[in-house]
Amino acid sequence: MMYWIDSHCHINDEAFKDDLNEVLNRMAEGNILEAMIISSYIEDYEFAKTIGHEKISFKRSLGIYPGDVDDVDEKLFEEFERRFKEDDCKAIGEIGLDYHWRKDNIEKQKKVFEDQLALAKELQKPVIIHSRDAIDDTYEILSRYDVKGVMHCYSDDAKMALKFLDLGFYISMAGPVTWKKAVKELEVVHTVPLNRLLIETDCPYLAPSPMRGKRNEPSFVAYTGEKIANELGVETAELQKQLIENYHTLFGL
Ligand SMILES: [Zn+2]
Questions:
Q1: I want to staple 2 with a disulfide (CB 3.0 to 4.6 A). Which of 41, 78, 142, 240 is the partner?
Q2: Residue 32: CA atoms inside 13 Å, Cβ hemisphere, count?
Q3: 180 CA from centroid of ligand 1 (Å)
């Protein structure tokens, strides 16, 4: 039986604290039967371990978010490192560079990013990459590390996507691919080979059409999946089968 996977969600976010069980029930009803819960804080990661549903398989990742590097010292980094080594931690991420909000701490962002990439290589764990307004630097750094991973919520162009594919990376598309003006995003969908594609919600943000503007949740990943299947002219089940395989291959499941 085929089903959808949300390869990147934050259901451990405060946005879900009042109705998490209903959100999980809608996932099961919507046939979203696997999901990766992404944590940027140790408390969120520990909380993510307590999230479960009898019909859904949840995995977890942890990483220091580029927006949070100011707070990172040796002691905090060691706390993260200890969790990265846990079997439960299936990937290191989301990590990367974000120059959209901050440009005054680029060197620290790069250092924390590279320190985590070095660990990912040592531990042989995949990485989940966040890159916003920083794609050239992200590429330059990733090209120096022998790691595999995924460009999460990919928002750059198809030409750049090819370079990440060359590095062995997967490309993950989120809600914006369903939005009205998704020209660049659809070009990426047509460029990425099916066996290197993933989809995600990145909830609670970036809800796909027709839910745009609402709080996003994993059950909405089906809108993104259907849009891509439609765009590529493939059967839903065929896309689901490939996405399941990609997710399992990348994260070693
Ligand atoms: Zn995220």
A1: 240
A2: 27
A3: 22
Burial of 15-34, coded b for 16+ CB within 10 Å and e otherwise, reads bbeeebeebbeebeebebbb
Host domain of residue 172: 4-251
Tokens 């962002």 label which residue? 109
pLDDT single digits (tens) 47-58? 999 999 999 999
User: What φ, ψ does residue 66 adopt, rounded to 5°?
Assistant: -60, -25
Structure tokens at 4: 């959808």
Residue 1's pLDDT band (cuts 50, 70, 90): confident
CA 202 to ligand 1 centroid distance, Å: 5
> How far, in Å, is the centroid of ligand 1 from the Cα of 252?
20
Q: How confident is the model at residue 10 (pLDDT cuts 50, 70, 90)?
A: very high
DSSP summary character for residue 215 = P
Q: How many domains does the chain have?
A: 1
Query: Of 27, 7, 28, whose CA–CA distance to 251 is shortest?
Result: 7
| Residue among 149, 190, 188, 189 at smallest CA distance from 170 | 149
* pTM (2 d.p.): 0.97
Q: What is the pLDDT of residues 57-74, one digit of tens each?
A: 999 999 999 999 999 999
Containing 170, the helix (H) or strand (E) segment is: strand 170-173
